[in-house]
Write a structure and sequence with these properties.
Blueprint: E1 5-15, H1 20-30, E2 34-43, E3 46-56, H2 57-74, E4 76-83, H3 85-94, E5 99-106, H4 111-123, E6 127-133, E7 149-156, H5 162-176, E8 179-184, E9 194-197, H6 208-216, H7 219-230, H8 236-245, H9 253-260, H10 268-277, E10 281-289, H11 290-300, E11 304-313, E12 316-322, H12 328-341, E13 349-353, H13 359-364, E14 367-371, H14 375-380, E15 383-385, H15 392-396, H16 401-407
Parallel strand pairs: 9-10, 9-13, 10-11, 13-14, 14-15
Antiparallel strand pairs: 1-3, 1-4, 2-3, 5-7, 5-8, 6-7, 11-12
Helix pairs in contact: 1-2, 4-5, 6-7, 7-8
């Protein structure tokens, strides 16, 4: 009578060194064992290796004996757990459940942040399958520390209340100075191809129309209108007309001076370099002005710029604009248009902005991110970054520092 196959889980831990995995899997190979699952991690030179294998019942004893001797020789600890076919079947059935990626991001990583996220996941009846660090290793010297930290959770299950889970993450973020991204783990998340940015207060740390207004002597008036529009209190198109009219008579040479001294947002240089190296198409969709968008286009090799055109006569601004206003509705239309031109599924797109007029494009993009946004915008957007620079977008895309540093 033929012996039944057995399923055994082995857990290996100890000091990591080259050849450990090769030696242990080599023993399994000699007996033609089937690997049903395998996972390995290295934390501070300590190995954690798990292998779930299936073998003929007559071979299991010899395999475990040989693994035990080899682990002693390698200086690692090994533990064996038999798995019943019923337990294995339940595990296989669990793999069909929804999978999500949770990314936490901040200036530093604390136990309270990890504990808080883990508790919310548990309260929703979901299970954490994997945790990996995306940012580089942190030196003990405060002066040498990286100004950012990010960890990614792979989570399985269906949230009991997805909306409540998002609200819990938002509340946790504000209390612990971190950002939390909650995304479905789909093929589209791993294949983003188009990213669209707002310009003012996103790629640059200012509102250009406010800079122009200062030179025109109407700074206070224009700033008040701008802030109200960004909070969504007044219609963007109407506020735009009012602000542009106040710029009448300003000499066009002022625009060049402002462009050459634009304050670039933290992380933009790194973000642009990585995005171009990995093949992203990049667009600026701005309620600002094409003059400044084109300046950034040349600086960063950006593919598309859509913004507003100021009318100029005799070297001075007329207080009017040319063409249609690029407002929130138009930004969403342009995102769809560019994705069609580039043959990119809308679920493969990313949109990033800070104002209420960015919400339409943020809401339709595969990944919409509110960046250092007003409270109303942050609450409406599914994802937000408020703790670090714009290169935080890269961690929400799943990139690790070790990979990005090679690209840059």
């Amino acid at each position: 009578m033929q012996e039944k196959d057995e399923i055994i889980f082995i857990n290996v831990s100890g000091y990591d060194r080259p050849g450990v995995t090769a030696a242990l899997t080599g023993i399994l190979a000699k007996k033609n064992a089937v690997i049903l699952d395998i996972g390995q991690a290295d934390i501070h030179s300590n190995l954690s290796l798990g292998i779930l294998f299936q073998s003929a019942g007559r071979d299991s004893g010899d395999i475990m004996k040989d693994l035990l001797f080899k682990s002693y020789e390698l200086g690692v600890t090994i533990r064996f757990d038999p798995i019943s076919t019923e337990d294995y079947s339940r595990w296989v059935n669990m793999q069909g459940k929804n999978r999500y990626i949770i990314t936490i991001l901040g200036r530093k990583l604390t136990a309270r942040q990890i504990a808080g996220v883990s508790r919310i996941v548990a309260d929703q009846g979901m299970n954490i399958d994997d945790i990996r660090r995306l940012t580089g290793r942190i030196p003990l010297d405060e002066m040498e520390r990286t100004p950012k930290a990010s960890v990614e959770f792979s989570v399985r299950g269906t949230p009991r209340d997805k909306k409540q889970m998002q609200l819990a993450f938002l509340e946790l973020s504000s209390g612990l100075e971190m950002d939390v991204s909650f995304q479905e783990d789909s093929m589209y998340r791993r294949m983003r191809r188009l990213i669209c940015f707002d310009m003012d207060s996103t790629l640059i740390k200012t509102e250009v129309i406010d800079e122009l207004a200062e030179r025109a002597g109407v700074g206070e008036q224009v700033r008040a209108i701008t802030e109200s529009a960004m909070r969504g209190e007044i219609d963007f198109a109407e506020s735009f007309k009012e602000r542009v009219a106040l710029l009448k008579g300003l000499d066009v040479s002022v625009m060049q001076e402002i462009a050459e001294n634009l304050p670039i947002t933290e992380g933009v240089d790194r973000l642009m370099q990585v995005l171009k190296r990995v093949g992203f198409k990049i667009a600026i969709l701005s309620g600002g002005f094409t003059y400044f968008g084109n300046y950034l286009k040349q600086k960063y090799n950006i593919d598309y710029v859509y913004a507003n055109e100021l009318e100029i006569e005799d070297g001075k601004l007329t207080g009017r604009y040319i063409g249609d206003i690029v407002d929130g509705k138009r930004k969403a239309e342009l995102l769809r248009l560019i994705s069609q031109v580039e043959n990119v599924d809308i679920r493969q797109t990313v949109a990033v902005g800070d104002g209420a007029n960015d919400l339409p494009m943020i809401s339709i993009a595969g990944l919409g991110i509110a960046f250092h946004a007003k409270p109303k915008v942050k609450e409406t957007a599914k994802q937000s970054i408020s703790t670090i620079g714009l290169d935080g977008v890269l961690y929400f895309l799943g990139y690790k520092d070790s990979y990005m540093n090679e690209q840059v």
